[in-house]
Write a structure and sequence with these properties.
Layout lengths: L1 H13 L1 H37 L10 H6 L1 H10 L8 H35 L10 H23 L4 H6 L5 H7 L1 H15 L8 E4 L4 E8 L3 E6 L4 E5 L2 H4 L3 E2 L1 H6 L2 E9 L9 H7 L6 H16 L16 H14 L11 E4 L7 E9 L4 H18 L13 H13 L4
Antiparallel strand pairs: 1-2, 1-5, 2-3, 3-4, 6-8, 7-8
Helix pairs in contact: 2-4, 4-5, 5-6
Length: 415
């Protein structure tokens, strides 16, 4: 066996070209075999260890695979020195390309490490308060810029300081190229330091058709999932330069504002008759109010003496004022209304569509669906009880109104 090998070596020595080619094939085969062994045995073994240690998701970022690529590159770079007759130029090319590939693999591994750090940070319960994804993206850009400089310097076999000395003249060009990145970096710092936006906040930016929850804050963009389940990507710097509404204050306050009006037909507003007052005294929410109000007005009107004979000089109870008090008492006893926050029932300026009676209060829930349920229940009740006070809601004439008028016109005696 040794004699056969010696014969082959002697024969290859007599043919330098074949010897060099055989050595190259052998080196490439060894590098491939080394890569296969590392990927199939070492990497899989590390994945299993991570899985058993509870760090299984970390393998998805590929940091181990990228680092494993360094091994065959080192083998090629070191083994090229052993190949006879390779030539200085070709040897330099192989070594430079291998070293550049090693730098690229390290840069990619560092980028994956930043992703791992971000994933670990997001597992914390308070991660939404201080997102670090933007800062990590800046580090990744810095790593890749440094890697690009080192790779170019390695490929041309020059010192990186020579390339760095030329960056001063390219500063204006680089600032022009990375102006969005620089602006986004400044915006990210201001957003984080001033606590302007967090993941999970409900933000509203009408000029960009964004209205929903923030699901991701990155260096260049902030992703907002709208209520129709679409996703809007907003440049990070727009949260500094453009106005927007953040509903976090409402979410943290524990109450959601209800500000809605009933438009009343102004022709239905009037004074209550004694029969109406007696009827409304049967309502639990108005019994004590009407009793006290009648006593107050009786004392006032008695002081008028003979002037009280003119009804216009006296004070009387109106159906609108009584209904307003009823709404106030109804809100105070409603379980869905936050009693520790502002409550108000007020009249707004009359409009061609009627007199607005506005309800201003806060519900005990901040969730959308329960809020709408509470609001609908309240207005269902108020609309249904309006006739008890002799009031009507303003409404434009509809088709049924016109048919009723035509029917009445036909029933009238013809001249």
């Amino acid at each position: 066996m040794l004699d056969t090998l010696s014969v082959w070596l002697d024969w290859l020595s007599a043919h330098p070209t074949l010897q060099t080619l055989s050595a190259c094939v052998l080196l490439i085969s060894a590098a491939w075999l080394c890569n296969w062994v590392v990927k199939r045995i070492l990497v899989r073994g590390l994945h299993r260890l991570l899985r058993h240690a509870g760090k299984g998701p970390l393998q998805d970022f590929g940091i181990i695979q990228r680092l494993s690529n360094i091994v065959p590159a080192l083998l090629l770079s070191s083994g090229a020195l052993l190949i006879p007759g390779l030539g200085e130029t070709l040897l330099a090319v192989v070594r430079n390309v291998s070293n550049a590939f090693i730098v690229l693999s390290i840069a990619l591994a560092l980028g994956a490490l930043m992703d791992i750090i971000n994933a670990l940070h997001q597992r914390r319960s308070d991660a939404y308060l201080h997102p670090i994804k933007g800062y990590l993206q800046v580090l990744k850009i810095l790593f890749f810029v440094i890697a690009a400089i080192l790779m170019v310097a390695t490929l041309i076999d020059r010192s990186p300081l020579i390339l760095l000395s030329g960056l001063g003249a390219m500063a204006a060009v680089l600032m022009l190229i990375f102006q969005d990145t620089l602006l986004s970096l400044v915006a990210s710092v201001q957003i984080s330091s001033n606590d302007i936006v967090r993941v999970g906040d409900w933000v509203e930016m009408p000029q960009l058709n964004a209205d929903g929850g923030v699901i991701d804050i990155a260096l260049h963009t902030v992703k907002v999932q709208n209520w129709d389940m679409t996703i809007t990507s907003i440049p990070t710097k727009r949260f500094i330069s453009d106005p927007f509404k953040n509903w976090r204050g409402m979410q943290e306050s524990g109450g959601r504002r209800m500000m809605r009006s009933l438009y009343l037909d102004q022709s239905s507003i009037g004074f209550l008759s004694p029969e109406n007052i007696t009827h409304l005294q049967g309502l639990t929410l108005l019994g004590s109010y009407l009793k006290n109000k009648q006593s107050e007005l009786l004392c006032w009107n008695d002081a008028l003496d003979t002037d009280a004979q003119v009804p216009a000089n006296t004070r009387r109870i109106t159906n609108l004022g009584t209904f307003r008090i009823y709404v106030e008492h109804y809100l105070r006893q409603h379980p869905g209304i936050n009693q520790d926050m502002t409550q108000m029932v007020r009249q707004l300026d009359p409009t061609p569509n009627g007199l607005p009676l506005q309800l201003y209060c806060f519900t005990t829930t901040i969730s959308w669906v329960p809020f709408e349920t509470v609001q609908s229940d309240i207005f269902d009740h108020l609309l249904a009880i309006l006739p008890e006070f002799g009031l009507r809601v303003f409404q434009y004439p509809s088709g049924s109104d016109m048919r009723g008028l035509n029917t009445q016109a036909r029933l009238l005696p013809q001249p």
